[in-house]
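A reminder from the course coordinator: this example appears on the midterm review sheet, so study it carefully.

Given structure:
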């Protein structure tokens, strides 16, 4: 058995923290190209209350149908929450402990010996990044997240972490995640992607390492990302018109392909989410 535990402090009482975590899950879950199992279909995140309730990546707003992420096994408002992952064998346990300043939220992910972790443990990474900032702004923030735009931009640097911190300091760019402290934290991810993301209005600006990981022989300095309604049709059209296909359609949390135009500029085309306009 392996177990990973993280704790984070939030400046609200345990009852409020529990309600914010469960009832406002879709508000604090950051939207982005790889923040869902299927970004092309995800409409919202939902936590159904009570024992046996589901955590769901919702694909149909009318029926609530979608990908079940977990089934709740412990429901003690203001104290404890736990669920068994439905996408692998991970078990998540969360405690809410009162402190003088608010609440310590502790997240533990456990994988039984010999069993699989296929993304169910992601909560130990995303909760410390996203939940405290939501608790800090929830009194003034709207409960409906703005949908991301159909045009995003990737920028490539030899030292992406240093570049990202400079962009934040010099240009005032803001990230939905805490900027990393390490000098170069962009490790090789299992899905082949790693970036630091900024938001400019409802547009994404993604900082990548310039090392050729995007495909082809050399990494670009800038790369537009365009979200389209029918990725297969778009891919077929681009190929028929002579675009150089750097990598075909891949599904790594989102579905996308990479192509070069007539002067060798690289473009990523991804399947749009249902709400993107």
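Designed residues:
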């Amino acid at each position: 058995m392996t177990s990973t535990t993280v704790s984070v402090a939030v400046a609200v009482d345990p009852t409020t923290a529990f309600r914010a975590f469960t009832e406002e899950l879709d508000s604090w879950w950051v939207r982005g190209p790889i923040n869902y199992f299927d970004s092309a279909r995800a409409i919202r995140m939902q936590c159904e209350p009570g024992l046996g309730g589901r955590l769901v990546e919702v694909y149909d707003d009318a029926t609530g149908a979608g990908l079940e992420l977990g089934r709740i096994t412990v429901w003690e408002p203001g104290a404890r929450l736990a669920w068994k992952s439905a996408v692998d064998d991970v078990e998540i346990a969360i405690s809410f402990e009162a402190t003088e300043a608010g609440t310590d939220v502790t997240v533990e992910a456990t994988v039984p010996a010999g069993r699989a972790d296929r993304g169910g443990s992601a909560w130990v990474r995303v909760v410390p990044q996203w939940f405290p900032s939501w608790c800090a702004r929830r009194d003034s923030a709207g409960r409906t997240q703005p949908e991301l735009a159909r045009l995003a931009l990737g920028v490539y640097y030899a030292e992406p972490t240093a570049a990202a911190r400079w962009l934040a300091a010099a240009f005032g760019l803001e990230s939905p995640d805490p900027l990393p402290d390490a000098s170069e934290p962009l490790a090789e991810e299992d899905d082949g992607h790693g970036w630091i993301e900024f938001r400019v209005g409802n547009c994404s600006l993604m900082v990548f390492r310039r090392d050729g990981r995007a495909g082809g022989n050399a990494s670009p300095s800038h790369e537009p990302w365009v979200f389209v309604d029918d990725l297969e049709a778009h891919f077929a059209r681009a190929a028929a018109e002579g675009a150089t296909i750097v990598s075909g359609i891949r599904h790594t949390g989102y579905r996308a392909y990479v192509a070069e135009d007539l002067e060798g500029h690289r473009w990523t085309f991804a399947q749009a989410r249902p709400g993107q306009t």
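The chain has a mean pLDDT of 89. The longest helix spans residues 123-137.
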